[in-house]
Automatic annotation (TrEMBL):
Protein name as it appears in the record: VWFA domain-containing protein
Gene3D superfamilies: von Willebrand factor, type A domain
Domain VWFA as annotated: residue spans: 205-364
Length: 369
């Protein structure tokens, strides 16, 4: 085992591994930063890993953030910040004005801001908004191309005189030029290449209604729902609605074109009345056969499950496309009540998890029919 390997293990294990040898000056600083965070973990103490000391830490949150930014790579910094907020509830990471003025925005901090913004005074909230704006801007930039490309023209099975590499018809070209195959050279010479035509989908107006559970476990899905709605906004043939719910229902459609403002209005936490939200969504539908309802929830129903299933069945029977999404984010890793989800699937509403791009592709396929 190399010296660098030993040092890594020493940093992982903390003081209980002191017998492994002395740390370099920079490694001691890293060790102090890790101890400041993970030394407070009682589970680590039980396993003789990073046991906490009895004295007060000399580091403030501001000092610690400065140290980890200097001592660790970006990916590690984001993980440490995420653990600080989500695991140890060190809320001053996103509520201390001095921190907010200097901290580098990232998705973990965006989640933290959304979960703690109700604790912030107006000045702190103004500073925290910088994190929301920066991360959302990055998400929109990455997702907009994927979402909008789902609505571009598709290849038609008729020939085109326009010769573009992306529309090259391999099968037709091979068949048309088989007579030019030379066995002795084992080569096929192409005299006449063929291409597809590319036509833009002609679409009628559809409604896409996103019903988003804003309970605490759905933070990532709330963020990606807001950004997805913004990316769908203004696309030809699509009218987007976004509705957030817990035990109450809040229609945020007027802010769909501004995902930052939308997220600043979301209130995470509270109970869940999914049936009430679905009934509200049903009331928005103008043409049932040209409507898509995406219910984004963990499906832990705090209201009437019977009413929820009945309303979803009625929507499906009238010709509305209903999707149940247990997660809408880049990882698409769902955690949800499978019993309730199965009951919705049984009445015709498939339940699963999607990335924003997959949802956009589904919408585009329905709209383009």
């Amino acid at each position: 085992m190399t010296d660098s390997d030993l040092e890594r293990w020493r940093l992982v294990l903390g003081e209980p591994a002191a017998a492994m040898g002395e740390l370099s000056a920079e490694a001691r600083q890293r060790d102090a930063a890790l101890q400041w965070l993970y030394g407070r973990d009682e589970e680590h103490a039980k396993r003789d890993v990073r046991t906490g000391g009895g004295g007060a830490s000399a580091l403030t949150t501001v000092d610690w953030l400065g140290d980890i930014t200097r001592l660790f790579p970006k990916e590690t910094v984001e993980r440490l910040q995420r653990d600080a907020v989500e695991r140890y509830e060190i809320t001053d990471v996103v509520t201390d004005p001095e921190v907010l003025r200097t901290i580098e925005p990232n998705p973990a901090l965006l989640r933290a801001v959304l979960q703690t913004k109700h604790l912030m005074n107006p000045e702190v909230l103004r500073l925290a908004r910088r994190i929301v704006e920066a991360v959302v801007r990055d998400l929109v930039a990455r997702m907009a191309t994927e979402v909008r490309s789902a609505f571009t023209g598709t290849r038609a099975r008729r020939p085109s005189r326009w010769k573009q590499a992306r529309d090259f018809d391999v099968t037709r070209t091979l068949r048309a030029n088989l007579g030019h195959y030379r066995p002795d050279e084992r080569r096929l010479y192409i005299e006449t290449p063929h291409f597809f035509s590319r036509t833009r989908k002609q679409v009628d107006q559809w409604q896409v209604i996103l019903l988003v559970d804003q309970s605490g476990s759905m933070t990532d899905s709330v963020i990606h729902s807001a950004v997805t709605a913004a990316c769908l906004w203004g696309l030809p043939g699509v009218r987007t609605h976004l509705v957030a719910f817990d035990t109450d229902v809040v229609d945020l459609t007027s802010d769909v074109d501004d995902p930052v403002e939308l997220l600043m209005k979301v209130q995470l936490g509270g109970g869940t009345d999914i049936a009430r939200a679905v009934r509200y969504g049903a009331g928005l539908i103008e043409q049932p056969r040209r409507a898509i309802v995406a219910l984004i929830s963990d499906f832990y129903e705090g209201g009437s499950e019977q009413s929820l299933v009945r309303t979803v069945r009625e929507l499906v029977e009238q010709g509305t496309k209903v999707l149940g999404l247990a997660a809408l984010d880049e990882q698409a890793n769902p955690a949800y009540d499978r019993s309730t989800a199965q009951k919705l699937a049984d009445v015709g509403a498939p339940v699963g998890a999607m990335t924003p791009g997959q949802l956009a592709q589904f919408v585009a396929e329905q709209v383009g029919r």
